[in-house]
DNA sequence: ATCAATTTGTAACGTTATAACAATTACGAC
DNA sequence: GTCGTAATTGTTATAACGTTACAAATTGAT
């Protein structure tokens, strides 16, 4: 049986919006979608996003200022905390689809690069831009639409 | 002998501001600094930044919305075009110092991760947050000041 | 019931980035 | 020279992204 929360669960609403799509959504896109549910202020959205980020349920794509649900490497949600090294994303510049990957040897390369500069790493951001498999078949790219 | 440009060389002014420091500057910080030189509008700054990015003279740090001069891996400017795979940055969360590195094996890991998802990479973003050598010695971190 | 702690809401503001269009400068053709 | 054109720069306004400060509501204890 599903519990009906006494308070509105903004984080839950956002998680639901992000689930089921590989397209990132900006905070203001989410705000628009949650307006019918009574969410009217950016603050509310950003607070909920913060919680979801902290719990690892979503990820922020820095180069898009947007957010995606965590899907793990294989489509199944995994249990990394936030900020771990060795995870990354591919971002299609044509259709905006984002895929997540986790790669231990990428992680070790990042740690090695940090070590080479006597740098103590705490988190890393890896975002690969290009064309997804579907879009690569459809002729040359068109910037970042 | 140095050529005196007939037009104001906004890109040159920005390059001069960014040279000689490892601290990233935002577009609006640069605007403030260029105000005495007669630059008053964000547009002007962003246009100049665009050119500098295209020519590889500066890099954009996505996670800070800020810009640093290209210094290459060893402190000497190198000649990568923009968007190449395999370059990355360390970003100190305490003092904001940014260092650039280039790592062929990191590049090959990124290409492999892309290939695993049938993704065609065109550019990559690698930013490692943590503490620089100087700051790591000074006690625990303090968020991202 | 009263209290303090937590969560949510509201309003205003600050920062980052772009769009649309006008004015100026450079430069070759005439 | 001056005309025409392309490239660059300037101006104004606006869009997009994010935070601060504080008020109101909910909760769970005492
Ligand atoms: Zn994830
Ligand atoms: Zn695509
Ligand atoms: Zn560089
Ligand atoms: Zn530091």
Automatic annotation (TrEMBL), chains A, B:
InterPro entries: FUR, Fur_C, WH-like_DNA-bd_sf, WH_DNA-bd_sf. Binds 1 zinc ion per subunit. Binds 1 Mn(2+) or Fe(2+) ion per subunit. Fe cation binds at residue 79. GO terms for biological process: negative regulation of DNA-templated transcription; regulation of secondary metabolite biosynthetic process. Zn(2+) binds at residues 92, 95, 132, 135. Its cofactor is Zn(2+); Mn(2+); Fe(2+). Keywords: DNA-binding, Iron, Metal-binding, Repressor, Transcription, Transcription regulation, Zinc. One of its GO terms (cellular component) is cytosol. GO terms for molecular function: DNA-binding transcription factor activity; transcription cis-regulatory region binding; zinc ion binding. It comes from the Bacteria. Belongs to the Fur family. This is Transcriptional repressor. It comes from Lichenibacterium ramalinae.
């Amino acid at each position: 049986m599903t519990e009906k929360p006494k308070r509105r669960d903004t984080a839950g609403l956002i998680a639901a919006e992000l689930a089921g799509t590989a397209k990132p959504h900006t905070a203001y896109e989410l705000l628009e979608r949650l307006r019918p549910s009574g969410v009217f202020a950016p603050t509310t959205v950003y607070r909920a996003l913060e919680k979801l980020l902290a719990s690892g349920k979503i990820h922020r794509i820095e180069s898009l200022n947007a957010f995606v649900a965590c899907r793990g490497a294989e489509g199944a949600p995994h249990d990394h905390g936030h900020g771990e090294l060795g995870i990354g994303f591919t971002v299609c510049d044509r259709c905006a689809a984002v895929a997540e990957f986790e790669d231990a040897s990428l992680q070790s390369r990042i740690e090695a690069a940090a070590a080479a500069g006597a740098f103590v790493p705490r988190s890393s951001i890896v975002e690969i831009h290009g064309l997804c498999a579907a879009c690569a078949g459809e002729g040359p790219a068109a910037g970042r639409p």
